[in-house]
Amino acid sequence: ASNVDSTHSINSVSCPTTGFCVAVDVSGNALIYNGSSWSASDIDASNVIVVVSCPNTSFCMAVDDFDNGLTYNGSTWSSLGSFDGVTVNSVSCPTTDFCVAVDVSGNALIYNGSTWSASDIDASNVIAVVSCPNTSFCIALDGVGNVLTYTGGTTWTSTSIDSGHALQSVSCPTTSFCVAVDDAGNVMTYNGATWSAASNVDSTHSINSVSCPTTGFCV
Q: Cα dist. 3→6, 10, 150 in Å?
């Protein structure tokens, strides 16, 4: 382990390449990795930054606990101001002009490169996480076992795949492969049409996060 932020907890990290990562912490800092070392700067007046997503080395979207969006253009950070009235849990940006954020009140918020638009897609349930491999497909998960699927660039649909469990994390490297994990150690996979039944891979623990850079490798 290499300690890169000795006095703060790190909430999120995004690495679009092997030579570039951005991490964000509870004190408003963004930490940028250049392939060999980390550098830190306070980008948000010491607010808690919840999550960050970087589709490439010249764009990142971070969101803090006051629902302010902060964007990175490859050299500097700027604030977009608040775009949601409640806490955002996750954001996914497959491109520089498309991001989806999800919040604790069932809303999905879509960024078009300049503004955000919101819609309640989950009857006010807490949505934990979202993953978008491109601008026309996203998978979001909530705390009561539902999957929210965004298709065609327009429509969200809800499907229950894990009733009785809180879905914790999802990773979709393509539109035809996703992996979801829950608080009971279960893994479910999506093949582009249907979800598999839950397979228990960690019977005594909650699985908090999953990452799949390809369809053949996940951690």
A: 6, 11, 38
87: CB partners within 8 A, 6+ apart: 50, 65, 67, 103, 104
Written as six digits, the tokens of 202 are 């960690």
What tokens appear for 141 in the block? 């998960």
Q: Could you report the per-residue pLDDT of 88-122, keeping only the tens digit for each?
A: 999 999 999 999 999 999 999 999 999 999 999 99
> Which amino acid is residue 159, in one-letter code?
T
Contacts of 82 (CB under 8 A, 6+ apart): 66, 67, 68
Q: How far apart are CA 6 and CA 58, in angstroms?
A: 27
Between CA 199 and CA 186 the distance in angstroms is 5
Instruction: Read off the DSSP letter of residue 214.
Output: B
How many CB atoms are located within 10 Å of the residue 105 CB?
17
DSSP string across 83-133: --SS-EEEEEEEETTEEEEEETTSEEEEE-SS-EEEEE-STTPPEEEEEEE
Which secondary-structure segment (H or E) carries 218?
none
